[in-house]
Amino acid sequence: MVQEMGTSVRTVQNHVSHLLATLGVANRTEAVALSYRCDLLLGALGERETETGAAEIPAKNE
Length: 62
Hints:
Blueprint lengths: L1 H4 L3 H15 L4 H10 L10 E2 L5 E2 L6
């Protein structure tokens, strides 16, 4: 990915570090957990967990 973008590994590391600091998390795992809690990510099949923990496929217009 770095080669395709024409950037250095260090540049990508800097961007990741700044993003983690902005989010207030210590690592990428915490960033993913935060994004799920804020309902920013969907599961692998595009499902969203409901309050009961069951998976729910969102409608196309969401």
